[in-house]
Write a structure and sequence with these properties.
CATH class of the largest domain in chain B: Alpha Beta
Largest sheet of chain A: none
CATH architecture of chain A: Orthogonal Bundle
CATH class of chain A: Mainly Alpha
Oligomer: heterodimer
Structural class of chain B: alpha/beta
Helix content of chain B: 25-40%
Radius of gyration of chain A: 20 Å
CATH superfamily of chain A: ABC transporter involved in vitamin B12 uptake, BtuC
Strand order of the largest sheet of chain B: 6-7-8-3-9-10
CATH topology of chain A: ABC transporter involved in vitamin B12 uptake, BtuC
Largest interface: A-B, 30 and 35 residues
Structural class of chain A: mainly alpha
CATH superfamily of the largest domain in chain B: P-loop containing nucleotide triphosphate hydrolases
Distance between the termini of chain A: 14 Å
Number of domains of chain B: 2
Helix content of chain A: over 70%
Largest sheet of chain B: 6 strands, mixed
Distance between the termini of chain B: 62 Å
Number of strands of chain A: 0
Order of helices and strands of chain B: EEEHEEHEHHHEHEHEEHEEEHEEEH
Shape of chain B: elongated
């Protein structure tokens, strides 16, 4: 199975696709704005309607950037987890990492009233949410690493992940029961998942968090390649497993945690996108797969968001519903095929 | 052999798990050395501590007592990264990735030598080419691992270890799960690598006959006994090889190098070529018929093959072992 299309061309194609999809994403919504109009508007021209300019700058550009960042964050945490746990079904959502992040946010938001904090307003609140979600995500990741160390079977690990997710969900329910109505409303809206809720200042925080989360991945690209052969072989090739485990936990925690903090739990991007990258690029080299997942994650989430806007109607779907509709069948297909080795 | 060629040396080594105060000792007083250009086979029953010994040599667990030195330096003082440039392994776990080609796999062997991105230099490519050539896997280098047979995969794993370019190669049961021809090929390959590439190779195996055929040195491990080290031929002639067969029912046949089940069969008088008598004995042991006791003489003739039996003044002739078997079973 020698690759027929050079990777450079695939990357060019993906990059181009990303730009085009970004522009389309800016155009679709309850009000359709022609792409040509957007391009001229962005490059110094005038929008023919003043309201369009407001919509683009105030709403759609932050939303599109949020989609790009969340796509990158989820896909890159997914591929790290899949290689580290040597489990093709690993991902931030299935292994309960998103639930852990959600629990962090729930504790912050639902108990926030007791501390008198107003959380979703302004920059400090933004960081607080990111940190709470990241801590929640890292805690679940630590538990999962411990479990993975004991349990080698990929299906068992998956079930344990689902249990952690349920557990976190149950704690959130208990918290919700005791919290007041306003806080509960904020949390409920958050938990439905949305790309549209980020302000420019939150976007800056998100961008920075993603950047921080990407650094450990880049440092350990070579170690991830060695991990393809399993821990024992990786160790024999000079990989410090303990270091790599911490790098994976911190990176995944920050990436999945911040994505969950700003967009709510988004399902299946983390698990499905790395497989798409493997299928398209036909390689196991993380030097290729990580940038590929990064680009593909952004592309896929932009597509999902554009679909969720239901072009031509005033309604929109929750983003989580769309990613599940796309991702869940892919995961089912992977399980039915069972022969993960073909792509993994 | 000059001292320079000794890669690894252990003195009074005790191995096992746990701390010094509360240790689970697995084997003690092991002394050995590994030299360049030698193929060493470690033999012993399951659970005797072969894997523990290998983990100790790999620096993954600390020895409980004694010293183990690599190129004169205590093993525990050598870091992971440094050690990975000297020792490469082939383990028993199966690696079957559908996205990794054989060449990519071999290239992974360069991991300890490349930069943070793992990019390969001209020099690295040459070493990879060489490893592929030495293991005769050029014809499959673009195949992905999930398409390989067990034998091909094992050779690819050996090529990967070779590309790592250490002085010492350690293999854990490299011939397990392989068919007969691949067992021979893999062991012959390892022997050539040891001799021609001047590597020290240590491998764990249960294939006694192939090991006798290929190894320069045997390490025999048996519960509670010191490590017995020697040239296979010496160990066979002086009978120490029987250490591997503590059971009364098994014995090592010095003539053929085979492990035989001992039996209480009283063989009748036999005539015929050596090899014919050998197979007749095996046949009689397996058939285990009381009728054999009443046979006074067996003569076997090679060409045309026939078996003559003298039994209580009667004479019989059979053209195959199978016919003889039917006779004994009646």
């Amino acid at each position: 199975m020698k690759n027929s299309i050079p990777h450079r061309n695939l990357f060019l194609f993906l990059g181009l696709g990303l730009i085009i999809l970004f522009l389309i994403n800016l155009g679709v919504g309850s009000v359709f704005i022609p792409i040509a109009e957007i391009i001229s508007g962005l490059f110094g021209g005038e929008f023919s309607k003043k309201s369009w300019e407001v919509i683009i700058y105030q709403y759609r550009i932050p939303k599109a950037f949020t989609a790009v960042l969340a796509g990158i964050a989820l896909a890159v945490s997914g591929i790290q987890m899949q290689t580290f746990f040597r489990n093709p079904l690993a991902g931030p959502y299935v292994l309960g990492i998103s639930s852990g992040a959600g629990l962090g946010v729930a504790i912050l938001v639902l108990t926030g009233s007791m501390l008198g904090l107003s959380l979703f307003a302004g920059g400090v609140g933004g960081w607080a949410v990111v940190i709470a979600a990241t801590i929640g995500a890292i805690l679940v990741l630590l538990l999962m690493s411990l479990t993975a160390w004991k349990v080698k079977d990929s299906m068992t690990l998956l079930i344990v992940g689902l249990m952690f997710g349920s557990l976190a969900g149950a704690i959130v329910s208990v918290l919700a029961y005791f919290s007041d109505a306003d806080q509960l409303k904020i949390f409920t809206v958050w938990s439905m998942g949305s790309l549209g809720g980020t302000t420019i200042s939150q976007l800056k925080i998100f961008g920075l968090a993603v950047l921080i989360g990407l650094i450990p991945v880049l440092v350990f690209i070579k170690s991830y390649n060695a991990m393809l052969l399993g821990e024992a072989y990786a160790e024999s090739m000079g990989v410090n497993i303990r270091q790599l485990r911490w790098a994976m936990i911190i990176s995944t925690g920050v990436l999945a945690g911040s994505a969950t903090a700003f967009c709510g739990p988004i399902a299946f991007i983390g698990i499905a996108v790395p497989h798409m990258a493997r299928i398209i690029f036909k390689t196991a080299d993380h030097g290729v797969l990580i940038p590929a997942s990064l680009l593909l994650g952004a592309v896929v989430l932009l597509i999902c968001d554009s679909i969720s806007q239901l072009p031509g109607s005033a309604q929109s779907l929750p983003i989580n519903a769309v990613t599940s509709l796309v991702g869940a069948p892919m995961v089912i297909w992977l399980i039915l095929k069972r022969n993960f080795s073909k792509e993994f | 052999m000059s001292r320079r060629d000794i890669i690894l040396q252990a003195e009074g080594l005790s191995i096992g798990y746990g701390s010094k105060s509360q240790a689970a000792m697995i084997a003690e007083e092991l002394s050995f050395k590994l030299e360049k250009g030698q193929l060493t086979c470690l033999l012993g029953p399951n659970g005797v501590g072969k894997s523990t010994l290998i983990k100790t040599i790999l620096g993954q667990i600390a020895p409980l007592k004694g010293s183990i030195k690599m190129n004169g330096k205590p093993l525990l003082n050598i870091g992971y990264k440094e050690l990975s440039k000297s020792i490469a392994v082939v383990l028993t776990e199966k690696v079957r990735l559908g996205n990794l080609t054989v060449r990519d796999l071999v290239a992974l062997g360069r991991t300890p030598h490349t930069n943070w991105l793992g990019s390969l230099s001209k020099q690295d490519q040459l070493i990879i080419d060489r490893a592929i050539r030495l293991t005769h896997i050029s014809y499959i280098q673009d195949k992905v691992l999930s398409e390989l047979s067990d034998g091909q995969l094992q050779k690819a794993m050996i090529a990967r270890a070779l590309a790592q370019d250490g002085d010492l190669l350690i293999l854990d049961e490299p011939t397990a799960h392989l068919d007969l021809i691949n067992r021979f090929e893999v062991m012959q390959l390892l022997r050539n690598i040891a001799h021609e590439e001047e590597k020290a190779i240590l491998l764990v195996t249960h294939d006694l006959d192939i090991a006798i055929d290929t190894a320069d040195e045997f390490w025999l491990m048996q519960c509670g006994l010191p490590l017995v080290i020697g040239t296979p031929e010496d160990l066979i002639v002086n009978g120490q090889i029987n250490l591997l067969l503590p059971s009364e029912r098994l014995s090592f046949d010095k003539m053929t190098g085979k492990v035989l089940t001992s039996s209480d069969v009283n063989y009748p008088l036999m005539e015929g070529g050596d090899y014919l008598i050998f197979w007749m004995k095996l046949f009689l042991r397996k058939i285990h018929s009381t009728k054999v006791n009443s046979i006074s003489k067996i003569s076997i003739i090679d060409d045309p093959f026939s078996i003559y039996i003298e039994k209580q003044e009667n004479h019989f002739r059979f053209e195959t072992f199978n016919d003889f078997k039917s006779f004994l079973k009646d």
